[in-house]
Design brief:
With 389 residues, the chain is α/β, with parallel strands linked by helices. It folds into two domains: 142 residues, Glycerate kinase, domain 1 (Rossmann fold); 230 residues, Glycerate kinase, domain 2 (Alpha-Beta Complex). It contains 14 helices and 13 strands. The radius of gyration is 22 Å and the shape is elongated.
Length: 389
Protein backbone atom coordinates (compact mmCIF):
# COMPACT_ATOMS: atom_id res chain seq x y z
CA UNK A 1 0.00 0.00 0.00
CA UNK A 2 1.39 3.38 -1.03
CA UNK A 3 0.17 6.63 0.53
CA UNK A 4 1.31 9.98 -0.86
CA UNK A 5 1.24 12.85 1.65
CA UNK A 6 1.49 16.22 -0.13
CA UNK A 7 0.34 19.12 2.09
CA UNK A 8 1.06 22.83 2.23
CA UNK A 9 2.22 24.42 5.47
CA UNK A 10 -0.15 25.39 8.25
CA UNK A 11 0.76 29.05 8.53
CA UNK A 12 2.19 30.23 11.85
CA UNK A 13 2.37 26.70 13.26
CA UNK A 14 3.80 23.96 11.01
CA UNK A 15 5.94 23.83 7.89
CA UNK A 16 4.77 21.64 5.02
CA UNK A 17 7.27 18.97 6.07
CA UNK A 18 6.05 19.16 9.68
CA UNK A 19 2.49 18.66 8.43
CA UNK A 20 3.51 15.67 6.33
CA UNK A 21 5.36 14.13 9.27
CA UNK A 22 2.36 14.51 11.56
CA UNK A 23 0.00 12.92 9.04
CA UNK A 24 2.40 10.02 8.58
CA UNK A 25 2.64 9.60 12.35
CA UNK A 26 -1.14 9.35 12.64
CA UNK A 27 -1.54 6.92 9.75
CA UNK A 28 1.23 4.63 11.00
CA UNK A 29 -0.87 3.79 14.06
CA UNK A 30 -3.29 2.04 11.72
CA UNK A 31 -1.06 1.17 8.75
CA UNK A 32 2.44 0.64 10.19
CA UNK A 33 3.73 -1.22 7.13
CA UNK A 34 2.42 1.06 4.38
CA UNK A 35 4.81 2.86 2.04
CA UNK A 36 4.67 6.58 2.79
CA UNK A 37 5.82 9.15 0.25
CA UNK A 38 6.03 12.62 1.81
CA UNK A 39 6.16 15.57 -0.59
CA UNK A 40 6.01 19.01 1.08
CA UNK A 41 4.06 21.36 -1.16
CA UNK A 42 3.36 25.07 -1.68
CA UNK A 43 1.52 27.31 -4.12
CA UNK A 44 4.25 29.85 -4.87
CA UNK A 45 3.67 32.06 -1.86
CA UNK A 46 5.28 32.16 1.57
CA UNK A 47 6.89 28.84 2.44
CA UNK A 48 7.53 27.78 -1.16
CA UNK A 49 11.32 27.78 -0.83
CA UNK A 50 11.33 25.68 2.34
CA UNK A 51 8.72 23.25 1.00
CA UNK A 52 10.55 22.64 -2.27
CA UNK A 53 13.92 22.33 -0.57
CA UNK A 54 12.45 19.79 1.86
CA UNK A 55 10.74 17.88 -0.95
CA UNK A 56 13.92 17.53 -3.00
CA UNK A 57 16.63 17.33 -0.37
CA UNK A 58 17.99 20.72 -1.37
CA UNK A 59 19.64 23.47 0.62
CA UNK A 60 18.94 27.00 1.84
CA UNK A 61 21.32 29.83 0.90
CA UNK A 62 21.35 32.77 3.33
CA UNK A 63 22.48 36.22 2.18
CA UNK A 64 22.50 39.85 3.32
CA UNK A 65 20.78 42.00 0.68
CA UNK A 66 19.25 45.44 0.22
CA UNK A 67 15.82 45.53 1.83
CA UNK A 68 12.76 47.50 0.73
CA UNK A 69 13.92 50.65 2.53
CA UNK A 70 17.47 50.47 1.17
CA UNK A 71 19.02 49.06 4.35
CA UNK A 72 20.59 45.62 4.67
CA UNK A 73 18.34 42.71 5.67
CA UNK A 74 18.75 38.96 6.09
CA UNK A 75 17.32 37.03 3.15
CA UNK A 76 17.50 33.55 1.64
CA UNK A 77 16.73 31.39 -1.35
CA UNK A 78 16.84 27.66 -2.05
CA UNK A 79 18.65 25.36 -4.43
CA UNK A 80 16.70 22.18 -5.14
CA UNK A 81 18.34 18.84 -4.56
CA UNK A 82 17.34 17.31 -7.86
CA UNK A 83 17.93 18.57 -11.43
CA UNK A 84 15.09 19.75 -13.64
CA UNK A 85 13.96 18.07 -16.88
CA UNK A 86 16.95 19.59 -18.68
CA UNK A 87 19.43 18.34 -16.11
CA UNK A 88 19.94 21.80 -14.58
CA UNK A 89 19.86 22.74 -10.92
CA UNK A 90 17.02 25.06 -9.93
CA UNK A 91 17.05 28.01 -7.55
CA UNK A 92 13.78 29.01 -5.86
CA UNK A 93 13.41 32.60 -4.71
CA UNK A 94 10.54 34.18 -2.81
CA UNK A 95 10.37 37.87 -3.64
CA UNK A 96 9.13 38.59 -0.13
CA UNK A 97 12.34 37.20 1.38
CA UNK A 98 14.19 40.31 0.17
CA UNK A 99 11.42 42.84 -0.50
CA UNK A 100 8.53 41.69 1.63
CA UNK A 101 6.02 43.87 3.41
CA UNK A 102 6.95 42.19 6.70
CA UNK A 103 10.40 43.80 6.41
CA UNK A 104 8.91 47.31 6.69
CA UNK A 105 7.44 48.49 10.02
CA UNK A 106 3.86 49.74 9.48
CA UNK A 107 4.68 53.42 10.18
CA UNK A 108 7.39 53.33 7.48
CA UNK A 109 5.39 51.67 4.70
CA UNK A 110 5.63 53.84 1.61
CA UNK A 111 5.62 52.30 -1.89
CA UNK A 112 6.83 55.61 -3.33
CA UNK A 113 10.31 54.75 -2.07
CA UNK A 114 10.50 50.99 -1.46
CA UNK A 115 12.70 48.98 -3.81
CA UNK A 116 12.99 45.46 -5.20
CA UNK A 117 16.80 45.76 -5.43
CA UNK A 118 17.32 42.88 -3.01
CA UNK A 119 15.41 40.48 -5.25
CA UNK A 120 17.89 41.23 -8.01
CA UNK A 121 20.76 40.59 -5.62
CA UNK A 122 19.38 37.13 -4.81
CA UNK A 123 18.98 36.36 -8.51
CA UNK A 124 22.52 37.55 -9.19
CA UNK A 125 23.87 35.35 -6.39
CA UNK A 126 22.13 32.31 -7.88
CA UNK A 127 23.51 33.15 -11.34
CA UNK A 128 27.00 33.43 -9.85
CA UNK A 129 26.63 29.84 -8.67
CA UNK A 130 25.92 28.66 -12.21
CA UNK A 131 22.16 28.27 -11.78
CA UNK A 132 20.35 28.17 -15.14
CA UNK A 133 16.77 27.69 -13.95
CA UNK A 134 15.12 30.06 -11.49
CA UNK A 135 11.64 29.88 -10.00
CA UNK A 136 10.57 33.24 -8.60
CA UNK A 137 7.56 33.43 -6.32
CA UNK A 138 5.68 36.72 -6.32
CA UNK A 139 3.52 38.02 -3.51
CA UNK A 140 3.80 39.75 -0.16
CA UNK A 141 5.88 42.59 -1.56
CA UNK A 142 6.37 46.04 -0.02
CA UNK A 143 7.20 47.52 -3.43
CA UNK A 144 5.48 49.21 -6.35
CA UNK A 145 8.49 49.69 -8.62
CA UNK A 146 7.63 47.11 -11.34
CA UNK A 147 10.90 45.32 -10.71
CA UNK A 148 13.02 48.36 -11.58
CA UNK A 149 15.17 47.88 -8.47
CA UNK A 150 15.64 44.22 -9.35
CA UNK A 151 16.87 45.20 -12.82
CA UNK A 152 19.27 47.76 -11.34
CA UNK A 153 20.77 45.08 -9.10
CA UNK A 154 21.24 42.87 -12.16
CA UNK A 155 23.19 45.60 -13.93
CA UNK A 156 20.60 47.53 -15.93
CA UNK A 157 21.03 51.30 -16.17
CA UNK A 158 17.80 53.20 -15.60
CA UNK A 159 18.55 56.88 -16.15
CA UNK A 160 16.74 60.24 -16.21
CA UNK A 161 17.02 63.07 -18.75
CA UNK A 162 20.44 64.07 -17.40
CA UNK A 163 21.81 60.55 -17.65
CA UNK A 164 21.84 60.01 -13.90
CA UNK A 165 20.55 56.81 -12.30
CA UNK A 166 16.98 57.16 -11.07
CA UNK A 167 16.37 56.73 -7.35
CA UNK A 168 14.81 53.70 -5.68
CA UNK A 169 11.03 53.38 -5.46
CA UNK A 170 7.88 53.56 -7.50
CA UNK A 171 7.71 57.35 -7.62
CA UNK A 172 11.13 57.61 -9.30
CA UNK A 173 9.85 55.74 -12.34
CA UNK A 174 8.18 58.98 -13.44
CA UNK A 175 11.68 60.39 -14.02
CA UNK A 176 12.85 57.50 -16.21
CA UNK A 177 14.09 58.47 -19.66
CA UNK A 178 16.26 55.59 -20.89
CA UNK A 179 16.95 51.92 -20.14
CA UNK A 180 20.28 50.30 -21.00
CA UNK A 181 20.50 46.55 -20.43
CA UNK A 182 23.86 46.02 -22.09
CA UNK A 183 25.50 45.54 -18.71
CA UNK A 184 23.06 42.95 -17.40
CA UNK A 185 24.52 39.99 -15.57
CA UNK A 186 26.35 37.92 -18.20
CA UNK A 187 24.59 34.68 -17.22
CA UNK A 188 21.03 36.01 -17.34
CA UNK A 189 20.42 35.16 -21.00
CA UNK A 190 21.28 31.51 -20.37
CA UNK A 191 18.82 31.22 -17.48
CA UNK A 192 15.21 30.06 -17.73
CA UNK A 193 13.03 32.07 -15.35
CA UNK A 194 9.61 30.84 -14.29
CA UNK A 195 7.44 33.10 -12.17
CA UNK A 196 4.82 31.78 -9.77
CA UNK A 197 1.93 34.23 -10.07
CA UNK A 198 -1.67 33.68 -9.03
CA UNK A 199 -3.23 37.05 -9.90
CA UNK A 200 -4.31 38.32 -13.31
CA UNK A 201 -4.12 42.07 -12.76
CA UNK A 202 -2.66 44.29 -15.50
CA UNK A 203 0.05 46.81 -14.68
CA UNK A 204 -2.06 49.99 -14.60
CA UNK A 205 -5.64 51.21 -14.37
CA UNK A 206 -8.55 50.36 -12.05
CA UNK A 207 -7.33 46.77 -11.62
CA UNK A 208 -3.65 47.60 -11.76
CA UNK A 209 -0.88 47.16 -9.22
CA UNK A 210 -1.18 50.60 -7.62
CA UNK A 211 -4.96 50.71 -7.22
CA UNK A 212 -5.48 47.15 -6.03
CA UNK A 213 -2.36 46.49 -3.99
CA UNK A 214 -0.95 49.95 -3.21
CA UNK A 215 -3.15 50.73 -0.17
CA UNK A 216 -2.03 47.64 1.74
CA UNK A 217 1.57 48.80 1.24
CA UNK A 218 0.90 52.21 2.74
CA UNK A 219 -0.35 54.25 -0.22
CA UNK A 220 -3.10 56.85 0.29
CA UNK A 221 -5.33 57.86 -2.67
CA UNK A 222 -2.96 60.59 -3.83
CA UNK A 223 -0.02 58.20 -3.72
CA UNK A 224 -2.00 55.55 -5.62
CA UNK A 225 -2.62 58.02 -8.45
CA UNK A 226 1.04 59.05 -8.47
CA UNK A 227 2.22 55.45 -8.56
CA UNK A 228 -0.20 54.47 -11.32
CA UNK A 229 1.05 57.36 -13.45
CA UNK A 230 4.67 56.37 -12.77
CA UNK A 231 4.06 52.76 -13.78
CA UNK A 232 2.34 53.85 -16.99
CA UNK A 233 5.34 56.05 -17.78
CA UNK A 234 7.70 53.14 -17.08
CA UNK A 235 5.74 50.96 -19.51
CA UNK A 236 5.91 53.71 -22.16
CA UNK A 237 9.70 53.93 -21.83
CA UNK A 238 10.05 50.16 -22.01
CA UNK A 239 7.89 50.03 -25.13
CA UNK A 240 10.00 52.72 -26.82
CA UNK A 241 13.17 50.69 -26.49
CA UNK A 242 14.57 49.34 -29.73
CA UNK A 243 16.29 46.42 -28.04
CA UNK A 244 15.37 42.87 -29.11
CA UNK A 245 15.92 41.61 -25.57
CA UNK A 246 13.05 43.74 -24.26
CA UNK A 247 9.46 42.59 -24.84
CA UNK A 248 6.88 45.29 -25.55
CA UNK A 249 3.19 45.41 -24.64
CA UNK A 250 3.54 43.35 -21.47
CA UNK A 251 1.69 45.90 -19.35
CA UNK A 252 -1.65 44.54 -20.55
CA UNK A 253 -0.87 40.88 -19.92
CA UNK A 254 -2.49 39.00 -17.06
CA UNK A 255 -0.25 39.13 -14.02
CA UNK A 256 1.70 42.23 -15.07
CA UNK A 257 0.43 44.00 -11.95
CA UNK A 258 1.49 41.25 -9.56
CA UNK A 259 3.81 42.20 -6.68
CA UNK A 260 3.76 45.93 -7.39
CA UNK A 261 4.25 45.43 -11.12
CA UNK A 262 7.08 42.92 -10.74
CA UNK A 263 5.13 40.68 -13.13
CA UNK A 264 5.58 43.33 -15.81
CA UNK A 265 9.28 43.75 -15.10
CA UNK A 266 10.18 40.09 -15.36
CA UNK A 267 8.12 39.56 -18.51
CA UNK A 268 9.35 42.68 -20.29
CA UNK A 269 13.03 42.57 -19.38
CA UNK A 270 13.86 39.00 -18.36
CA UNK A 271 11.66 37.06 -20.82
CA UNK A 272 10.12 35.24 -17.88
CA UNK A 273 6.96 33.17 -18.10
CA UNK A 274 4.17 33.54 -15.52
CA UNK A 275 2.39 30.39 -14.35
CA UNK A 276 0.13 29.40 -11.45
CA UNK A 277 2.40 28.74 -8.52
CA UNK A 278 1.00 25.34 -7.61
CA UNK A 279 1.54 24.12 -11.19
CA UNK A 280 5.21 25.10 -11.05
CA UNK A 281 5.66 23.39 -7.69
CA UNK A 282 3.88 20.14 -8.61
CA UNK A 283 6.00 19.86 -11.74
CA UNK A 284 9.27 20.68 -9.99
CA UNK A 285 8.79 18.10 -7.22
CA UNK A 286 7.54 15.52 -9.75
CA UNK A 287 4.30 14.93 -7.90
CA UNK A 288 2.77 13.04 -10.83
CA UNK A 289 5.53 10.41 -10.76
CA UNK A 290 4.80 9.70 -7.10
CA UNK A 291 1.00 9.63 -7.51
CA UNK A 292 0.72 7.32 -10.50
CA UNK A 293 0.96 4.10 -8.43
CA UNK A 294 -0.47 5.42 -5.15
CA UNK A 295 -3.48 4.01 -3.32
CA UNK A 296 -4.33 7.24 -1.51
CA UNK A 297 -3.25 10.88 -1.63
CA UNK A 298 -3.56 13.17 1.38
CA UNK A 299 -3.16 16.91 1.07
CA UNK A 300 -4.10 19.97 3.09
CA UNK A 301 -3.43 23.53 4.19
CA UNK A 302 -4.11 25.71 7.19
CA UNK A 303 -7.56 26.70 5.97
CA UNK A 304 -9.72 25.09 3.30
CA UNK A 305 -12.49 27.37 2.08
CA UNK A 306 -14.17 28.56 -1.09
CA UNK A 307 -10.91 30.06 -2.39
CA UNK A 308 -9.02 26.78 -2.21
CA UNK A 309 -10.24 25.65 -5.62
CA UNK A 310 -8.64 28.74 -7.21
CA UNK A 311 -5.05 27.60 -7.44
CA UNK A 312 -4.31 26.65 -3.83
CA UNK A 313 -2.19 23.62 -2.99
CA UNK A 314 -5.00 21.10 -2.23
CA UNK A 315 -6.60 21.81 -5.60
CA UNK A 316 -3.31 21.45 -7.42
CA UNK A 317 -2.61 18.13 -5.71
CA UNK A 318 -6.15 16.93 -6.43
CA UNK A 319 -5.75 17.72 -10.13
CA UNK A 320 -2.62 15.58 -10.32
CA UNK A 321 -4.10 12.68 -8.33
CA UNK A 322 -7.25 12.61 -10.46
CA UNK A 323 -5.18 11.96 -13.58
CA UNK A 324 -4.37 8.57 -12.08
CA UNK A 325 -7.78 7.98 -10.44
CA UNK A 326 -6.24 8.08 -6.96
CA UNK A 327 -8.68 9.06 -4.17
CA UNK A 328 -7.68 12.24 -2.37
CA UNK A 329 -8.47 13.43 1.16
CA UNK A 330 -7.90 16.93 2.52
CA UNK A 331 -6.93 17.90 6.08
CA UNK A 332 -7.03 21.51 7.27
CA UNK A 333 -6.48 23.51 10.40
CA UNK A 334 -10.03 24.74 9.92
CA UNK A 335 -12.76 24.79 7.27
CA UNK A 336 -14.09 28.14 6.08
CA UNK A 337 -17.08 29.29 4.07
CA UNK A 338 -17.45 27.42 0.80
CA UNK A 339 -15.07 24.62 1.76
CA UNK A 340 -17.37 22.07 0.11
CA UNK A 341 -16.46 23.53 -3.29
CA UNK A 342 -13.42 21.25 -3.42
CA UNK A 343 -15.64 18.22 -2.81
CA UNK A 344 -17.53 19.11 -5.96
CA UNK A 345 -14.20 19.04 -7.78
CA UNK A 346 -13.66 15.42 -6.78
CA UNK A 347 -11.96 15.39 -3.38
CA UNK A 348 -13.41 12.53 -1.38
CA UNK A 349 -13.51 14.19 2.04
CA UNK A 350 -12.13 17.11 4.04
CA UNK A 351 -11.43 17.23 7.76
CA UNK A 352 -10.60 20.03 10.23
CA UNK A 353 -8.18 19.20 13.05
CA UNK A 354 -9.40 21.54 15.80
CA UNK A 355 -11.11 19.32 18.43
CA UNK A 356 -12.82 22.09 20.41
CA UNK A 357 -13.19 25.84 20.74
CA UNK A 358 -9.78 27.07 21.93
CA UNK A 359 -7.74 30.28 22.11
CA UNK A 360 -5.72 30.88 18.96
CA UNK A 361 -2.42 30.44 20.78
CA UNK A 362 -3.44 26.95 21.92
CA UNK A 363 -4.73 26.04 18.45
CA UNK A 364 -1.36 26.93 16.94
CA UNK A 365 0.72 25.23 19.63
CA UNK A 366 -1.37 22.02 19.52
CA UNK A 367 -1.42 21.77 15.72
CA UNK A 368 1.01 18.86 15.47
CA UNK A 369 -0.82 16.76 18.07
CA UNK A 370 -4.25 17.55 16.66
CA UNK A 371 -3.09 16.83 13.13
CA UNK A 372 -1.63 13.43 14.03
CA UNK A 373 -4.80 12.53 15.97
CA UNK A 374 -7.05 13.50 13.06
CA UNK A 375 -4.89 11.54 10.61
CA UNK A 376 -5.10 8.47 12.86
CA UNK A 377 -8.91 8.65 12.87
CA UNK A 378 -9.02 9.10 9.10
CA UNK A 379 -6.80 6.06 8.68
CA UNK A 380 -9.06 4.03 10.98
CA UNK A 381 -12.14 4.89 8.93
CA UNK A 382 -10.32 4.17 5.68
CA UNK A 383 -9.25 0.76 7.01
CA UNK A 384 -12.92 -0.12 7.49
CA UNK A 385 -13.61 0.57 3.82
CA UNK A 386 -10.70 -1.70 2.83
CA UNK A 387 -12.08 -4.56 4.90
CA UNK A 388 -15.38 -4.34 3.03
CA UNK A 389 -13.78 -4.65 -0.42
Amino acid sequence: MKIVIAPDSFKESLSALDVANAIEQGFKHIFPHAQYCKIPMADGGEGTVQAMVDATGGRIIKRRVTGPLGTQVNAFYGILGQPDANGQLTAVIEMAAASGLHLVPPPQRNPLITTSFGVGELIADALNQGIKHIILGLGGSATNDAGAGMMQALGAKLTDMSGSDIAFGGAALANLHHIDIQSLHPNINDCQIEVACDVDNPLCGPRGASVIFGPQKGANPAMVAQLDHALAHFADVVNRQQTPQISVGCEHQAGAGAAGGMGFGVMAMLAATLKPGVDIVTQSVELAKHCQDADLVITGEGRIDGQTVYGKTPMGVLNVAQKYNVPTIGIAGCLGNGADAILKQGMKAIFPIIPAVQPLEQVLSDAQVNLAHTAKNIAAVWSLSLKQT
